[in-house]
TrEMBL record:
PROSITE patterns per UniProt: YRDC
Keyword DNA repair: no
Ligand binding (L-threonine): T33, H65, R120, A139, S179
Species in which this protein is naturally found: Aurantimonas manganoxydans (strain ATCC BAA-1229 / DSM 21871 / SI85-9A1)
Catalytic activity, EC: 2.7.7.87
GO BP annotation list: regulation of translational fidelity; tRNA processing
Annotated protein name in UniProt: Threonylcarbamoyl-AMP synthase
Amino acid sequence: MKTELLSADAPDAARRAVALLAAGELVGIPTETVYGLAADATDGAAVARIFEAKGRPRFNPLICHVPDLAMAATLAEIGPVAAMLAEAFWPGPLTMVLPLKEGSPVHPLATAGLATVAIRAPQGIAGRLAAALGRPLAAPSANPSGRVSPTNAGQVLRGLGGRLPLILDGGPCEVGVESTIVLPEADRLVLLRAGGVGRAELARATGLPVVDPAGDAAINAPGQLTSHYAPSGRVRLDATDVAPGEYLIAFGPAPVAGQDRAAAIVNLSPSGDLREAAAGLFAALAGFDAPEITAIAVAPIPQSGLGEAINDRLRRAAAPRG
Protein backbone atom coordinates (compact mmCIF):
# COMPACT_ATOMS: atom_id res chain seq x y z
CA MET A 1 0.00 0.00 0.00
CA LYS A 2 1.27 3.45 -0.89
CA THR A 3 0.87 6.06 1.86
CA GLU A 4 0.04 9.61 0.79
CA LEU A 5 1.12 12.59 2.87
CA LEU A 6 -1.39 15.43 2.46
CA SER A 7 -1.53 18.84 4.11
CA ALA A 8 -4.40 19.02 6.58
CA ASP A 9 -5.11 22.48 5.13
CA ALA A 10 -5.59 21.18 1.59
CA PRO A 11 -9.08 21.99 0.26
CA ASP A 12 -10.11 18.35 -0.05
CA ALA A 13 -8.13 16.94 2.92
CA ALA A 14 -11.09 16.50 5.28
CA ARG A 15 -13.36 15.08 2.57
CA ARG A 16 -10.81 12.49 1.51
CA ALA A 17 -10.02 11.53 5.09
CA VAL A 18 -13.69 11.10 5.98
CA ALA A 19 -14.30 8.98 2.87
CA LEU A 20 -11.48 6.64 3.86
CA LEU A 21 -12.65 6.43 7.47
CA ALA A 22 -16.21 5.69 6.34
CA ALA A 23 -14.82 2.86 4.19
CA GLY A 24 -13.13 1.28 7.21
CA GLU A 25 -9.61 2.50 6.40
CA LEU A 26 -6.97 4.08 8.65
CA VAL A 27 -5.87 7.72 8.52
CA GLY A 28 -2.98 9.36 10.34
CA ILE A 29 -4.26 12.56 11.92
CA PRO A 30 -2.70 15.44 13.85
CA THR A 31 -3.93 16.38 17.32
CA GLU A 32 -2.58 18.87 19.80
CA THR A 33 -0.97 16.02 21.80
CA VAL A 34 0.55 13.52 19.33
CA TYR A 35 -0.41 12.18 15.92
CA GLY A 36 -3.13 9.53 16.04
CA LEU A 37 -3.84 6.45 13.96
CA ALA A 38 -7.57 6.95 13.39
CA ALA A 39 -10.38 4.55 12.50
CA ASP A 40 -14.14 4.47 12.93
CA ALA A 41 -14.56 3.37 16.56
CA THR A 42 -17.88 1.68 15.77
CA ASP A 43 -16.42 -0.59 13.07
CA GLY A 44 -14.76 -3.70 14.52
CA ALA A 45 -12.79 -4.53 11.38
CA ALA A 46 -11.48 -0.97 11.18
CA VAL A 47 -10.43 -1.03 14.84
CA ALA A 48 -8.70 -4.36 14.23
CA ARG A 49 -6.69 -2.65 11.48
CA ILE A 50 -5.28 -0.27 14.12
CA PHE A 51 -3.89 -3.14 16.17
CA GLU A 52 -2.62 -4.82 13.00
CA ALA A 53 -0.86 -1.69 11.71
CA LYS A 54 0.75 -0.91 15.06
CA GLY A 55 1.76 -4.51 15.73
CA ARG A 56 0.13 -4.01 19.13
CA PRO A 57 0.61 -7.16 21.23
CA ARG A 58 -2.49 -6.66 23.40
CA PHE A 59 -6.00 -5.39 22.88
CA ASN A 60 -5.68 -2.43 25.22
CA PRO A 61 -8.53 0.08 25.41
CA LEU A 62 -8.34 2.82 22.79
CA ILE A 63 -9.33 6.45 23.27
CA CYS A 64 -12.43 7.48 21.32
CA HIS A 65 -12.20 11.00 19.92
CA VAL A 66 -15.36 13.08 19.61
CA PRO A 67 -16.10 16.64 18.48
CA ASP A 68 -18.04 17.65 21.57
CA LEU A 69 -19.91 16.64 24.70
CA ALA A 70 -23.06 15.92 22.70
CA MET A 71 -21.45 13.00 20.86
CA ALA A 72 -19.73 11.88 24.06
CA ALA A 73 -23.14 11.61 25.70
CA THR A 74 -24.24 9.10 23.06
CA LEU A 75 -21.32 6.84 23.98
CA ALA A 76 -21.05 7.13 27.75
CA GLU A 77 -22.82 8.21 30.92
CA ILE A 78 -21.82 11.81 31.62
CA GLY A 79 -22.04 12.60 35.32
CA PRO A 80 -21.73 16.05 36.93
CA VAL A 81 -17.97 15.77 37.49
CA ALA A 82 -17.37 14.64 33.91
CA ALA A 83 -19.48 17.53 32.61
CA MET A 84 -17.44 19.94 34.72
CA LEU A 85 -14.19 18.57 33.32
CA ALA A 86 -15.47 18.77 29.76
CA GLU A 87 -16.49 22.39 30.30
CA ALA A 88 -13.03 23.22 31.63
CA PHE A 89 -10.76 21.26 29.31
CA TRP A 90 -12.53 20.26 26.08
CA PRO A 91 -11.48 20.56 23.38
CA GLY A 92 -8.08 19.74 24.78
CA PRO A 93 -5.63 17.12 26.04
CA LEU A 94 -7.89 15.45 28.62
CA THR A 95 -9.32 11.92 28.33
CA MET A 96 -12.03 10.70 30.68
CA VAL A 97 -12.81 7.06 31.43
CA LEU A 98 -16.60 6.85 31.74
CA PRO A 99 -19.26 4.13 32.04
CA LEU A 100 -20.47 2.86 28.69
CA LYS A 101 -23.97 3.96 27.88
CA GLU A 102 -26.45 1.18 27.21
CA GLY A 103 -26.57 0.72 23.45
CA SER A 104 -23.30 2.62 22.95
CA PRO A 105 -22.17 2.20 19.33
CA VAL A 106 -18.48 1.88 20.26
CA HIS A 107 -17.22 -1.53 19.20
CA PRO A 108 -16.06 -3.79 22.08
CA LEU A 109 -12.63 -4.10 20.47
CA ALA A 110 -12.10 -0.37 21.07
CA THR A 111 -12.98 -0.74 24.78
CA ALA A 112 -11.10 -4.07 25.17
CA GLY A 113 -14.33 -5.55 26.44
CA LEU A 114 -14.49 -3.20 29.42
CA ALA A 115 -17.68 -1.64 30.74
CA THR A 116 -16.05 1.77 30.38
CA VAL A 117 -14.92 3.88 27.44
CA ALA A 118 -12.11 6.44 27.24
CA ILE A 119 -13.26 9.64 25.52
CA ARG A 120 -11.53 12.86 24.47
CA ALA A 121 -12.57 15.90 22.46
CA PRO A 122 -9.36 16.99 20.69
CA GLN A 123 -8.53 20.37 19.25
CA GLY A 124 -8.22 20.94 15.51
CA ILE A 125 -9.00 18.71 12.57
CA ALA A 126 -9.40 15.48 14.57
CA GLY A 127 -12.63 16.71 16.13
CA ARG A 128 -13.87 18.05 12.80
CA LEU A 129 -13.30 14.68 11.16
CA ALA A 130 -15.31 12.92 13.88
CA ALA A 131 -18.09 15.46 13.42
CA ALA A 132 -18.12 15.02 9.64
CA LEU A 133 -18.07 11.24 9.94
CA GLY A 134 -20.81 11.37 12.56
CA ARG A 135 -19.05 8.70 14.61
CA PRO A 136 -16.21 8.62 17.17
CA LEU A 137 -12.66 7.97 16.06
CA ALA A 138 -10.50 5.42 17.83
CA ALA A 139 -7.02 6.91 17.53
CA PRO A 140 -4.04 5.69 19.55
CA SER A 141 -0.64 7.20 18.81
CA ALA A 142 0.38 6.67 15.18
CA ASN A 143 3.53 4.65 15.75
CA PRO A 144 4.54 0.99 15.81
CA SER A 145 3.85 -0.49 19.24
CA GLY A 146 6.62 0.26 21.70
CA ARG A 147 8.13 3.10 19.66
CA VAL A 148 8.18 6.80 20.47
CA SER A 149 4.88 8.62 19.89
CA PRO A 150 5.06 10.84 16.79
CA THR A 151 4.69 14.60 16.99
CA ASN A 152 5.01 15.35 13.28
CA ALA A 153 3.74 13.74 10.09
CA GLY A 154 7.19 12.67 8.92
CA GLN A 155 7.60 10.46 11.98
CA VAL A 156 4.26 8.80 11.22
CA LEU A 157 5.33 8.15 7.63
CA ARG A 158 8.66 6.65 8.73
CA GLY A 159 7.01 4.37 11.27
CA LEU A 160 3.81 3.34 9.52
CA GLY A 161 4.37 4.14 5.84
CA GLY A 162 2.81 1.42 3.70
CA ARG A 163 0.32 0.41 6.42
CA LEU A 164 -2.27 3.13 5.85
CA PRO A 165 -3.43 5.06 2.78
CA LEU A 166 -3.32 8.64 4.08
CA ILE A 167 -1.55 10.84 6.64
CA LEU A 168 -2.76 14.39 7.18
CA ASP A 169 0.12 16.77 7.89
CA GLY A 170 -0.91 19.39 10.42
CA GLY A 171 2.61 20.42 11.38
CA PRO A 172 4.21 19.79 14.77
CA CYS A 173 1.96 18.98 17.71
CA GLU A 174 1.46 21.85 20.15
CA VAL A 175 1.46 19.82 23.37
CA GLY A 176 3.75 16.99 22.32
CA VAL A 177 2.82 14.48 25.05
CA GLU A 178 -0.19 12.21 25.31
CA SER A 179 -3.43 13.34 26.93
CA THR A 180 -4.03 13.11 30.65
CA ILE A 181 -6.40 10.24 31.51
CA VAL A 182 -8.70 10.56 34.51
CA LEU A 183 -11.47 8.48 36.04
CA PRO A 184 -14.03 10.97 37.44
CA GLU A 185 -15.76 9.93 40.65
CA ALA A 186 -18.28 11.81 42.76
CA ASP A 187 -15.73 12.93 45.35
CA ARG A 188 -12.36 12.59 43.61
CA LEU A 189 -10.48 12.22 40.34
CA VAL A 190 -8.35 9.13 39.78
CA LEU A 191 -5.32 10.02 37.67
CA LEU A 192 -4.67 7.04 35.39
CA ARG A 193 -2.06 8.73 33.19
CA ALA A 194 -0.25 12.03 33.50
CA GLY A 195 -0.30 14.14 30.36
CA GLY A 196 -1.20 17.48 28.83
CA VAL A 197 -3.40 18.64 31.73
CA GLY A 198 -1.66 18.82 35.09
CA ARG A 199 -2.83 17.48 38.42
CA ALA A 200 -3.10 20.99 39.91
CA GLU A 201 -5.24 22.17 36.96
CA LEU A 202 -7.64 19.27 37.48
CA ALA A 203 -7.96 20.05 41.17
CA ARG A 204 -8.54 23.76 40.56
CA ALA A 205 -11.22 23.13 37.94
CA THR A 206 -13.24 20.71 40.07
CA GLY A 207 -12.35 21.42 43.69
CA LEU A 208 -11.76 17.67 44.10
CA PRO A 209 -8.67 15.75 45.22
CA VAL A 210 -6.66 14.07 42.48
CA VAL A 211 -5.45 10.64 43.57
CA ASP A 212 -3.39 7.85 42.07
CA PRO A 213 -5.14 4.58 41.19
CA ALA A 214 -5.44 1.98 43.92
CA GLY A 215 -7.32 -1.27 44.26
CA ASP A 216 -10.04 -1.90 41.68
CA ALA A 217 -9.57 1.53 40.05
CA ALA A 218 -6.63 0.02 38.15
CA ILE A 219 -8.96 -2.07 35.98
CA ASN A 220 -9.62 1.01 33.87
CA ALA A 221 -5.99 1.33 32.83
CA PRO A 222 -4.73 -0.76 29.92
CA GLY A 223 -3.24 -4.16 30.65
CA GLN A 224 -3.30 -3.95 34.43
CA LEU A 225 -4.80 -7.33 35.25
CA THR A 226 -3.72 -10.83 34.25
CA SER A 227 -7.37 -11.86 34.17
CA HIS A 228 -10.09 -9.32 33.49
CA TYR A 229 -13.53 -9.33 31.96
CA ALA A 230 -13.33 -13.07 31.34
CA PRO A 231 -16.42 -15.27 31.02
CA SER A 232 -17.54 -16.99 34.21
CA GLY A 233 -16.80 -20.47 32.85
CA ARG A 234 -13.40 -22.16 32.61
CA VAL A 235 -11.61 -21.36 29.33
CA ARG A 236 -9.42 -24.06 27.76
CA LEU A 237 -7.01 -22.83 25.09
CA ASP A 238 -5.48 -24.56 22.04
CA ALA A 239 -8.19 -27.20 22.15
CA THR A 240 -7.83 -29.85 19.45
CA ASP A 241 -10.92 -31.73 20.62
CA VAL A 242 -14.20 -30.90 22.32
CA ALA A 243 -15.58 -32.66 25.39
CA PRO A 244 -19.33 -33.32 25.54
CA GLY A 245 -21.18 -30.20 26.66
CA GLU A 246 -18.27 -27.79 26.17
CA TYR A 247 -18.89 -24.56 24.28
CA LEU A 248 -16.50 -24.06 21.37
CA ILE A 249 -14.84 -20.95 20.01
CA ALA A 250 -13.53 -22.12 16.65
CA PHE A 251 -11.24 -20.54 14.07
CA GLY A 252 -10.81 -21.33 10.40
CA PRO A 253 -12.40 -23.87 8.09
CA ALA A 254 -10.97 -27.06 9.66
CA PRO A 255 -13.33 -28.86 12.04
CA VAL A 256 -12.28 -29.59 15.63
CA ALA A 257 -12.48 -33.19 16.70
CA GLY A 258 -15.69 -33.85 18.60
CA GLN A 259 -17.26 -30.50 17.74
CA ASP A 260 -20.56 -32.27 17.11
CA ARG A 261 -20.64 -32.80 20.89
CA ALA A 262 -20.31 -29.05 21.60
CA ALA A 263 -23.22 -27.31 23.29
CA ALA A 264 -22.75 -24.37 20.91
CA ILE A 265 -20.14 -23.14 18.46
CA VAL A 266 -18.97 -19.66 17.48
CA ASN A 267 -16.38 -19.46 14.71
CA LEU A 268 -14.33 -16.27 14.93
CA SER A 269 -13.56 -16.52 11.21
CA PRO A 270 -14.58 -19.52 9.10
CA SER A 271 -12.10 -18.35 6.43
CA GLY A 272 -9.20 -18.01 8.89
CA ASP A 273 -8.98 -14.20 8.65
CA LEU A 274 -7.28 -12.84 11.78
CA ARG A 275 -8.75 -9.36 11.32
CA GLU A 276 -12.28 -10.81 11.26
CA ALA A 277 -11.40 -12.94 14.30
CA ALA A 278 -10.16 -9.92 16.24
CA ALA A 279 -13.33 -7.97 15.48
CA GLY A 280 -15.51 -10.80 16.79
CA LEU A 281 -13.45 -11.88 19.80
CA PHE A 282 -15.12 -9.91 22.59
CA ALA A 283 -18.61 -10.62 21.28
CA ALA A 284 -17.80 -14.34 21.31
CA LEU A 285 -16.52 -14.22 24.89
CA ALA A 286 -19.50 -12.16 26.01
CA GLY A 287 -21.90 -14.53 24.26
CA PHE A 288 -20.55 -17.44 26.32
CA ASP A 289 -20.53 -15.50 29.60
CA ALA A 290 -23.44 -17.07 31.49
CA PRO A 291 -23.67 -18.95 34.82
CA GLU A 292 -24.83 -22.15 33.12
CA ILE A 293 -21.77 -22.20 30.82
CA THR A 294 -19.00 -23.80 32.83
CA ALA A 295 -16.51 -24.90 30.17
CA ILE A 296 -15.35 -23.20 26.96
CA ALA A 297 -12.88 -24.73 24.52
CA VAL A 298 -10.95 -22.43 22.18
CA ALA A 299 -9.39 -23.83 19.02
CA PRO A 300 -5.75 -22.95 18.24
CA ILE A 301 -5.23 -19.53 16.69
CA PRO A 302 -1.98 -18.61 14.90
CA GLN A 303 0.42 -16.37 16.80
CA SER A 304 1.38 -14.34 13.74
CA GLY A 305 0.16 -10.78 13.13
CA LEU A 306 -3.07 -10.01 14.98
CA GLY A 307 -3.00 -13.56 16.32
CA GLU A 308 -0.52 -12.41 18.96
CA ALA A 309 -3.02 -9.91 20.35
CA ILE A 310 -5.92 -12.37 20.10
CA ASN A 311 -3.97 -15.02 21.99
CA ASP A 312 -2.89 -12.49 24.62
CA ARG A 313 -6.52 -11.62 25.34
CA LEU A 314 -7.51 -15.29 25.41
CA ARG A 315 -4.74 -16.08 27.90
CA ARG A 316 -6.12 -13.37 30.15
CA ALA A 317 -9.60 -14.82 29.80
CA ALA A 318 -8.23 -18.27 30.71
CA ALA A 319 -6.04 -17.14 33.62
CA PRO A 320 -6.82 -18.66 37.06
CA ARG A 321 -9.22 -16.55 39.09
CA GLY A 322 -9.46 -16.45 42.84
